[in-house]
Amino acid sequence: MKNIRISMIALTIMIAGFNTSNGQTLKKQQEKTTISKGNVMKNEQKTVHANPFTLVYEGAITENVAGKVNIHPVSYKINGITIAANVYTPANYNPAQKYPAVVVAHPNGGVKEQVAGLYAQRLAEQGYITITADAAYQGGSGGFPRNVDKPANRIEDIHAMADFISQYKGVDVQKLGLLGVCGGGGYSLNAAQSDKRFKSIATLSMFNSGVVRKNGYVNSAVNTIQDRLIQAAKAREQEAAGGEVVYIGDIKTLPTDEQIAKMPFDLYREGTIYYGRTHAHPNSSGKYTASSLMDLMVFDASANMDLIQQPLLMIVGSKADSKYMTDEAFAKAINAKDKELFVIDGATHIETYWKPEYVNQAVDKLSKFYSKSL
After folding, report:
1. Euclidean distance between CA atoms 61 and 353, whole angstroms
2. Helix (H, G, I), strand (E, B) or coil at 54
3. 156-193 burial, b if ≥16 CB within 10 A, otherwise e?
4. Predicted pLDDT at 286
5. Poorest-confidence range of 18-22, 254-258, 264-268, 335-339?
């Protein structure tokens, strides 16, 4: 049981991030790190002053300049909950003109200022109006209790981003695309099955959150499924009675280099570095309510893939130990009019979030895909 608990903590860190102390000044600890199963080697570390928009990715916008890509913090409501979002507009944006648009869904526990913002900005540089929002109950968005992580909510987040951006000045509603990263990729597949406003769908390093929550990463926890469902039901019972909210993955102290090196998968090791060090953000939290498992464990991002008839692009690294999830979902998309599996040679799951040579390949592929399909 001890090993199972450690694996679940590692997984939570990998797909989410970390809380920093309240009131802490946001800094980007830019640390180029080579990680192997038995070795963690620090090459370089530097501190970058807080970005005015709290963006933590390389090349992020620091100010809105006329004639260049601009960022616009916006908010709207989902069932009474205030959602915090960022809209990116392309260079020389003219609201009187019409532009294709792309909705970008962030990873589990991630926030709009991390990888989702990076891809939203890069696509805006290619001429698209883009939007990325913090999930309800998470990040800078409202909702209580905090860090509820239910598939229905995440899918509704995607529909609502489409609602908002479709009304944004300059958006051509007939040219609306969708991009989901990691867990956001799994939810994007589900959202696109019924939401035909999305004319094409792409995923990057897709993560099937429900299947992993049920079976464990690479089916490492199938022998504890029923026990964890019982724990989730008890947690919900406690919440309903007004008791304390039970959380999974409420990490108080970051793992040491030695602990990171002993994590069983690249996704754990590199995710810990990404979310905890190099791209940490105070709104990105590794915890989620234990009661959420009641919903998560019956969700499968690869179900009903036959409902997707729109063009589909799924991008994954050749060395990603999460690649099996993309492969399974892609094979089930039997009715997609035009589908492609694009494998980035040499990339792991997390490296597609930040490593320039892999990000550039993904952005180039996405740009060509949306140019053709929107």
Report:
1. 17
2. coil
3. bbbebbbebbeebeebeeebbbbbbbbbbbbbbbbbbb
4. 80
5. 18-22
DSSP 8-class letter at 81: E
Phi and psi (nearest 5°) for 173? -65, -15
pTM: 0.89
Taking only the tens place, the pLDDT of each residue in 140-155 is: 999 999 999 999 999 9
Do you know the residue count of the chain?
374
Please list, in sequence order, all residues whose beta carbon lies within 8 angstroms of the beta carbon of residue 8, skipping any fewer than 6 positions away: 216, 221, 248, 249
Please list, in sequence order, all residues whose beta carbon lies within 8 angstroms of the beta carbon of residue 199, skipping any fewer than 6 positions away: 174, 175, 176, 177, 310, 311, 373, 374
Are 349 and 324 in contact by the 8 Å Cβ rule? The answer is: no
The rounded distance, in Å, linking the Cα atoms of 185 and 206 is: 5
pLDDT tens for each residue of 162-212: 999 999 999 999 999 999 999 999 999 999 999 999 999 999 999 999 999
Q: Extract the runs of DSSP E, i.e. beta strands, from the chain.
A: 28-36, 39-48, 70-78, 81-89, 99-105, 129-133, 171-181, 200-204, 247-248, 288-289, 312-317, 339-344
Determine contact, residues 186/206, Cβ cutoff 8 Å.
Answer: yes
Instruction: Please list the residues that pair with 176 across neighbouring strands.
Output: 101
Query: Residue 97 has which token pair?
Result: 């003109």
